[in-house]
Amino acid sequence: MVLSKQSVLLLFFSLAAVQVFAVPLVNLISDAHARRLRAGELIIQTRFKNPLPELMPQNTDLQRIVNEARSTLNPNIIVESLFLYKKPDHYHTSADKWDDEQKIGILNQTLAISTLTGIQYYSASRGEMRTFYEYSSVIDGPQTKKPAADPVLSSPASVTLYARQTDLTFGNNIYKYDYTAARDAVIFTQENVTSLSVGIIPVIGKGNLHSVLAAVDCGDSILIYAVSMVNSVSIPGLRDRITNSFSTRAEAVLKWFTGRLDNELFK
Predict the structure, then answer these.
(1) 3 state DSSP class of 36
(2) Pick from 113, 84, 123, 139: nearest CA to 253
(3) Residues sharing a CB contact under 8 Å with residue 197, sequence separation 6 or more, in sequence order
(4) What 3-state class would DSSP assign to 164?
(5) Which residues lie across from 186 on neighbouring strands?
(6) Is residue 218 helix, strand or coil?
(7) Where are the alpha helices (DSSP H) in the chain?
(8) Highest CATH level, class, for 19-265
(9) CA-to-CA distance for 197 and 241, rounded, in angstroms?
(10) Are the beta carbons of 106 and 186 closer than 8 angstroms?
(11) What 3-state class would DSSP assign to 107?
């Protein structure tokens, strides 16, 4: 069978359309931020009073998720972080194409909610390491709250689950997690199902915390972006504590996630 010129062109563009290419780092973030990340720096920014995300990568799926959450929440605190994770040389498949095995593996690492139990962070005020999550478990639902096993997927998919987590700042609470396996990113969001309190003082109402973590493919690296958007009550003396809590959360979760990549996915 002889294909016409038009058929050949159609076949070429059809095949090209199914290729998934990693976006270069410089197309995702500013040159200045890219240089800092390549030097091994963790970038963290905090802003108040109707703040806008400033570190968010140029990724359509991520921007949609963050902007929808922000418009719903109308936050008065935003804490963002950026980090560049270099894939091990022995695990490179192609410098310019997302690898499905990596995507599924990354998604399953983020689903390992139980492994957050016992993770630690450095407390600058105390000058020592402290436990972040004393307890973390997937549950079967926000009403029954029965512990369940961490899900393990065999293919990229969107997933919603609930978790019960106890931390030193806000105590014992229920959170909703939504996971999205996008074309060139794995994204998950955390929303508080119960109101969060500091001691006996309620400071963040139900649904007034939205945290997003995204792992965006950059070929030989993974760009990790995290943002916590909070609509918190204004109580003198508590804003700094709440803000510091989310800054340490970002560092602790980042350390947990990259540790999972090192010890489970890319070992």
Answers:
(1) helix
(2) 113
(3) 170, 171, 203
(4) strand
(5) 181, 215
(6) coil
(7) 5-18, 25-28, 31-38, 60-73, 100-110, 239-260
(8) alpha beta
(9) 12
(10) yes
(11) helix
User: What are the phi and psi torsion angles at 195 (to 5°)?
Assistant: -70, 150
H helix count then E strand count, the chain: 6, 12
Q: What is the pLDDT along the chain (267 residues), one digit of tens a residue?
A: 444 444 434 433 333 334 455 678 989 999 999 999 999 999 999 998 878 999 999 999 999 999 999 999 999 999 999 999 998 877 665 555 677 888 899 999 999 999 999 998 877 667 788 889 999 999 999 999 999 999 999 988 899 999 999 998 899 999 999 999 988 899 999 999 999 998 888 999 999 999 999 999 988 899 999 999 999 887 766 777 778 878 888 889 999 999 999 999 888
- Are 75 and 209 within 8 A, CB to CB? no
Task: Return the biggest CA–CA distance within the chain.
Answer: 78
Question: Which residue type occupies 159?
Answer: V
CA distance 9 to 113: 47
Domain spans in the chain, listed from the N-terminal domain onward: 19-265
The whole-angstrom separation of Cα 112 and Cα 137 is 9
Query: For residue 107, what are its two tokens?
Result: 């998604």
The H or E element containing residue 135 is strand 133-139
